Amino acid sequence: MPILNFLLPKDAKKQKVILLGSGALSIGQAGEFDYSGSQAVKALEEEGLEVIIINPNIASVQTNRGLNKKVYLYPITPFWVEKIIKIEKPAAIISSFGGQTSLNCVIELGKKGILNKYNVKVLGTQVDALEMSEDRELFAQKMKLINVPIAESHAVSTVDEALKTAEKIGYPVITRSAFALGGLGSGLARTATELKKLTQAALMSSPQVLIEKSLHGWKEIEYEVMRDKTGNTITICNMENFDPMGIHTGDSIVIAPCQTINNIENNMLRDTAIKIAQSLGIVGECNVQYALNPKDYSFYVIEINARLSRSSALASKATGYPIAYIAAKIVIGFDLLELKNPVTGTTSAFYEPSLDYVTLKVPRWDLNKFSGVSKNLGTQMKSVGEVMAIGRNFCEVVQKALRMVNENEDGITVNVFKNASDEVLEKELLSPTNLRIFAIYETFKRGKTLEYVYEKTKIDYWFLSHILYLANVETELLDFFKLKVKRDNVTVQEIYDSYKLVTKDKLQRLKSRGFSDFQLTKVYLSACLNSKVKLTIKEIRSLSFGVRELRKKLGILPVVKQIDTTSSEYPTKSNYLYLTYDGIHSDVSTKKNEKSIITLGSGSYRIGSSLEFDWCSVMTSSYFKNKKNDSVIINCNPETVSTDYSASDRLYFEELSFERVLDIVDIEDPKGVIACMGGQNPNNLIQPLSEAKVNILGHSQKSVDKAEDREKFSAMLDELGIDQPEWISAISLADIEKFIKKVGFPVLIRPSFVLSGTLMNVANDQESLDYYLSLTKDISTDFPVVISKFILDAKEIECDGIAKDGEVILSLISEHIENAGVHSGDATMVFPAQKIYIHTVNIIRDIVRKIVKGLNLNGPFNIQFIAKDNDVKVIECNARASRSFPFISKVSGVNLAELACKVMNSEKVKKILIDESEIHHVGVKASMFSFQRLDGADPVVGVEMASTGEVGCLGEKFNHAFLLSMESTQIKRPKKGILLSTGRERDKVKFMEVINSLYKLAVPIYATKGSAKYLGSRGYEASIVHWNRSPRAIDVITEGKVDFVININKNLSVDELHNNSEIRKVAVKCGCSILTNLEKVIAYLKACDSYEELQNIENCISL
Amino acid sequence: MNKEKRILTKEYKKAYLELSNGMKFEGSSIGASVNVSGEMVFNTGMLGYSEAMTDPSYLGQILVFSFCLIGNYGIPSYQNKDFFMSKGHESSSIKTQGIIVSDIYDGCHHHDGGISLENWMKDQNVPGIAGIDTRYLVQIIRESKNLFGKIISENAKPQDKNKFEFLKNFKNSEYIDPAKYNLMPSVSTNKKMIMGKGFKKVAVIDCGVKWNIIRMLMERNCKVELLPWDGDFSEIQCDGWLISNGPGDPKNTDNLVERIKKYVLALGKPILGICLGHQLLSLASGAKTKRLNHGHRSHNQPVFSIPEKNAYMTSQNHRYAVEKSSIQPGWELWFENANDDSVEGIRHKTKPFMSVQFHPEASSGPNDTSWIMNKFVDLL
Fold first, then answer.
1. Fewest CB atoms within 10 A around its CB: which of A653, A947, A1086, B134?
2. Which residues in chain B (316-345) have CB-CB distances under 8 A to chain A?
3. Surface of A (505-564) touching B: CB under 8 A
4. What are the tens digits of pLDDT across the range B258-285?
5. Which residues are within 8 A (CB) of A1062 and not within 5 positions of it... i.e. 6 or more apart?
6. What ipTM describes this predicted complex?
7. Could you tell me the pTM of the whole model?
8. Interchain contact B305–A (C-beta under 8 A)
């Protein structure tokens, strides 16, 4: 019997298994766990198990309702897991599919004896082995025992110990903190001073810090290992970092399979990985990371992860081997030999995939979104997402990947270092930022040698020589096209004729090295067009049809290749596809009976577009798949469920660029393309695709344009008599002055071009206005600044819905806890809305009707409002699915995405009226911030979005749902003390509303001078802390006297922000819970009154 | 490699692959400018091109690498004093007729590297073609029962027929089917050699032995006596026998099978057969061999032991296999392929005779079954 005995049905009833998720997305722990969890659910359900999901990540696919599944949107903590164990009485729990969060939770449940108490078995790798893999000292001992080399490393728990250890092993040293993900608290120390600083910070959040010998410049290599209970073991994939040791693997460009190691090195590391998995008794998946000396055959094991990881998700997508699915079968008792490789359907799952292509992962950073954060990369992960490119040579994948991650059509040739000085370039090579690869390219273009760049970067020659090749190719093309006198104007025909001169063979070669038509057009333009002439993207795109037409005429077309795990050794029906110009034959024929529907996915996760849009994409592609339409998806993000082979009928793991989508449309000849379900990235393609005569399903291009074009939208609102905040698009300072005279401060500034720092800001006075304007480029017709009246103390309300032919089919209204001024992606959202007047609701519904009609919407939409008293103004309308779709869908029970699909598929739909007061529970969606990983970032929320993830929790009462959502986003009830600074006078007054709730928490209260005085005058005691003299505010945080910081800005002026940022930064570094928004603070403290009640509830709400 | 400045506009010398099914592919000529012919085979291993190209089992074949990037780490230096044990080399020269790749890297920056792949091919007078859709070619080979090919480039010389004995059987214009002839004289040592200083002596029948077999025996304290395939086995004093891997059809080996039966099997001393050696030993035991459709040539062939069901990733390179139903009484199935159930190893129920279709010496490929070498040495 393959399945373990205790998992077999008892008394004809299915056994239950708890699967823990990973909670909100944060840096270091992102969407990859939705992918692995979703595969696991499928694998478990197939074997007749009922799966209990505990995960507050409401936007994940794994938290969808299911037939053999129950979903609890609760914090992943021993407390709540125990409660759910009591309710569900599961036979077993699985720890390995929910990242570090779930692993830590299961280790704790084991230690506390809870698992034994309820007789819940841990499936897969057992707790003692998990602990050994996590405790670095224990792990090091174990490795010594089995003769596996491990970098000399010492656990220390004080700064003094750290300094002594470093003396012994010699600088530079690396510090790492135990029990942490994403390299939190890690860094490189060259001197004692640096080490002191690093260990101090690391010891705040971890009891143990490791000091290790620095292996800077060594190759960094990973292996993904799978072992079953009989001990049979395979390595599924190896991966090599383009960036050598010194940059966190999550922030490294990664190629799979390894490219610069030979057979001896590969098998030496593979053997070791297997040996480690055997010795730890891994059952399921594990990942082993190595540092390999580039000068000889020596190596060290860096760490292992005894669970599914970001790397395993990447390896799955790189190889086509469904690691999580097979791992789930293994943890419930199957052996590898009993399982088939699902890709081939005929060969054994005991199999190491062979690839006949390469994949390249490039991380996505959004460091611009965080003011104050250093852009330098190091051992602490900073990226928020990633893309993966597939191709048949390195040049092709590197150019594809750069287009994917930067959401453009450029590749490596167009870059920010074109005008940089040699010094800037050299500095970039030596201390890399997220842009290093472009600096390498530019360095080569300036004629520097491979040796020069190698010495500065230690990146292997193999990688560098390909970048050099691309630089040489561009230089040659430029030379080839160069005109004596540049022109002011270029035509499509001229582009066509010029590339014709390049000859067919060479154009084919350019395409096979990853050059896009757009990029080739740009190269031509920079050779021939007068540099004073600036063309828009739209204009260049039109010109690029010169290359496209020529290509088509010459028969230079991309071919479709399958990813099949076997390099074609066996025939497969794999539906996992990519396009390449480095080949002459397509694996799949495109002749079909049914015309396909193509869903465009959302690309890399980033600030502002995350799991929620993958959820929408998955709902869309599976809707059409289930409807037996031929469902096709295009996406390039390896961390997603949408790029799982089972989410569609055909997956093109490809760029979401205009050219590539058009290529796929040419190949597929689809019924239509859906671009409104993957967020703004695919939405931007609606206009060019429509113009290229591609049938877009859903809203017409005209509707989308009218909604997105500020002028047109505003004019429409005026016509319909709908109120909106006053605004102008200023092209001079005089414009701004005039506008401000009219509306007064505060105003919201949105520059169209930013040199550094954040994009949007609120200016409270002339001084801050001047400061923010100084950050932007000169204001001109080309770079206008949009300035709008900012309304203080107004409520923000959203309406999500579906329209058909200009009529509202469904609309659902939710409210924000925070007042207007906090980006809707960062705000805490409540559904059904609790605090809106009925009259306001009626006004809103009326406006929604008018806008839907006015734009003639036909698909999903989201409209944002601000309301003050009963005065409602429209901020914006998104003619696409919104961030809140999964949240609203799951709380209301109506799947908005599916409804949108019906409309877009021209199916009959009836108007749906939902009485929101009939919904028996309240949902609260809260944002997760990753400030702890972003050294130097000011953790204040504002008009620019900064959160990396979100959760959504349910409660019978608002307070319950709110507390659960706070706990799930690391806002923990204070235990040690609270540091208070309550902002403006009027905020202080308002704060008195919850003063009793604050003191009921019964912990010491520290307050800054003004706040303490205010409290004192009303008979409440608080210890005073100061800015500059003892006791300092910062000291009570670093000394661990407080674990909760309430820090409200007096206003949004620059000074005030700077004053408080020190407190906030230190609080974040020390792992304190921190709230900076008054309304959220009030809601939190009020909710704390229900804390005991919530703790004592016996019934948790499940989906 | 920086010397060649004009990369895009550089004129590549064209080369063509002509197949016996009438298809023709165009690519760029790499390596030596020689026209060759051979049996078309593919290998799906992603690393280990130097090991594969020097593996004598590839004699007479044009090897297609399914992996798209070949040559990345160059060719390990082999002109050192410990020539015989040079890492990354499995014999003293390239044995493939030619290679077909998608993309070749013309550099060598690995710490173990001595020379670039292309320069090595030039040194050894071996041609190749780059810029071929190798995935497509693999599918064509997979679907054809027998496929032969020619590498033809402009102004190229014909192949020197003295390079290998078997070439003398073919005309220049002909498609070469190496398995038609006995390939042993082309790959076996022509004189007896003794290597190592160990206490135990292993007689290795050289049918085209891979050097790693010898290395592993020596590492395990064995003295290796390498015998020519047609040498006199009757007077050999040894503690055990190893029948090596090699190219071609096991039945096309003159009287080798009878001599193994008479002088090796009859002695009762420990025997290990590897790959062709496994087929020869099986034939000597009375079992039969058959030709597989396109064989196994990869680093990821899954096999498992019977009855324990211990599974191993193995490196393989063969087209012939032992027929399961022909395993003789007294012998038993030892290993089976997890993908296609083919015979991967047999052993004698009572005597110390064993043989495996896969390569316990790996090189290239996974080392999962190196324990078989330990097991064999323990028996001595």
1. A1086
2. 338-339
3. 506, 509-510, 559, 561
4. 999 999 999 999 999 999 999 999 999 9
5. A1034
6. 0.97
7. 0.95
8. no
